[in-house]
Amino acid sequence: MSKALTDLTAQSDKTIQSLQKDLLKVRTGRASTALIDHVHVDYYGSKTAISQVANLTTPDARTIQIVAWETSMLGAIEKAILEANVGFTPQNDGKVIRITMPPLTEERRKEMVKMIKKMGEDAKIAIRNHRRDANEDVKKQEKDKVLSADESKKFQEQIQKKTDEKVADIDKIIATKEKEIMTI
């Protein structure tokens, strides 16, 4: 029976990891290479991740610097960033591409906080769906006489406890990201 609880934990952890990955793409006013990690460049006919054709660094808090391994790729990288519509205009000086992060306005910060709270709520809904699936599995086993009513109730309580822990983890992650966004 611990399979339902193990599955719930594994699925919840995946949901939280997915949320954390998505939050990396949210701009916080500080430069981060994660903001352009998902951009793919046309590298000799195949779509390749930007990190596979260039070195991405953040020399200061407001700049992302891209040094292509082949100088001929600078134009393709610049074009890919513009087409990805990430909200930045790359500046190509022939050797290096720089992306300067404009400071966020208070209004934009509040919009971003609403957006991350929605992302957090979506993750909580996914975890609750995992809880529902685990509870259905336990109830099915009780109906099939694999578990007694007392065992079923005990497992459902453990499932609820695990769900509450994962939801609390999401709340902490969102609160941390909100603080990061609202810090000027």
Description:
By secondary structure, the protein is α+β, with helices and mostly antiparallel strands. It has helices at residues 2-24, 74-84, 106-143, 149-182, and strands at residues 40-43, 46-49, 54-60, 63-68, 91-92, 97-100. The chain folds into two domains: 2-25 and 105-182, Topoisomerase I, Chain A, domain 4 (Orthogonal Bundle), CATH 1.10.132; 33-100, Gyrase A, domain 2, CATH 3.30.1360.40. The protein has a four-stranded antiparallel sheet, covered by helices on one side. Strand 3 (54-60) and strand 4 (63-68) form a beta hairpin. Helix 1 packs antiparallel against helix 3 (106-143). It starts with a helix and ends with a helix. The mean pLDDT is 88.
Concise account of the structure shown:
The chain is of the alpha+beta class and 184 residues long.
Topology:
Layout lengths: L1 H23 L15 E4 L2 E4 L4 E7 L2 E6 L5 H11 L6 E2 L4 E4 L5 H38 L5 H34 L2
Antiparallel strand pairs: 1-2, 3-4, 4-6, 5-6
In round numbers, the mean pLDDT is: 88
**Low-confidence runs of at least 5 consecutive residues:** none
- Hey, roughly how much beta strand do the residues contain? 5-15%
- Helix coverage percent: 55-70%
Count of alpha/pi helices: 4
Question: Numbering strands along the chain, what is their spatial order in the largest sheet?
Answer: 3-4-6-5
Number of domains: 2
Q: Can you say what the CATH homologous superfamily of the largest domain is? A: Ribosome-recycling factor
Structural class: alpha+beta
- Distance from N terminus to C terminus (CA atoms, Å) equals 49 Å
The third-level CATH topology of the largest domain is Topoisomerase I, Chain A, domain 4
Radius of gyration: 22 Å
State the CATH class of the largest domain.
Mainly Alpha
Under the CATH scheme, which architecture of the largest domain would be assigned? Orthogonal Bundle
